[in-house]
Automatic annotation (TrEMBL):
Its main location: nucleus. The lineage of its organism: Eukaryota, Viridiplantae, Streptophyta, Embryophyta, Tracheophyta. It comes from the Eukaryota. Gene3D superfamilies: DNA-binding pseudobarrel domain. It is found in: Nucleus. This is B3 domain-containing protein At2g33720-like. PANTHER family: TF-B3 DOMAIN-CONTAINING PROTEIN, TRANSCRIPTION FACTOR B3-DOMAIN FAMILY-RELATED. It comes from Camelina sativa (False flax). Keywords: DNA-binding, Nucleus, Transcription, Transcription regulation.
Amino acid sequence: MDMAPISASNTHCKSLVTLDLFPCEPHDPMGVCGPTGNKQPEEKTNLAWMRFMTDEEIKEEERHNVSTNLTLYTDPWTIKKEMTKTSLGYLNRLFLNGSTVRSHILRYLSVSDQRILEDGFGLSLEAYDDDTASMHNVVLKKWHKCESYVLLNGWRMDFVVRRALKEGDVIGMYWDPYGFKLHFRVLSRAPIRASSGYAAMGSTSFAPCFAGP
């Protein structure tokens, strides 16, 4: 018997730290803090020195759930999936790789929410569609048969049908630990094949024990 999903609790999130960038130190021998000759101050201002953190400093920040480390922009869509017949079928589930979910979702959840998933319950999550600026609800559940995870309930109607997803489309998702929700976007559409006929998205009785990242 399937157990009713439990709503996720927003009890675990990281502190956001804003950093100020300083062009130089007061004792900087190059004297780039002020104007030189007829140059304007902004013309002689260097970018801030990049601060490298020691392993001990990184571990200390992890213990306090904060981060002051500056990083360049990275692709936010940490979970990417190419749509298959299984993903689009009437079984209403999207398989997700276990290690991917643990790295990009579970680590941001509270201990109690992680325990809910380990105990076999479904965890109700908000899912925000960045393309249509609309909020939806899905259920994340652990698929114990193969140590992967699945998105259930609202997956088919709110995403497959509503967004007209087709086989070969690529979607992206990431977990927002501050807004405490899953973000969704269609990253690319499968090329239209003029010679291909209509392919019905029927159900299948076989559930694969793998899921791509």
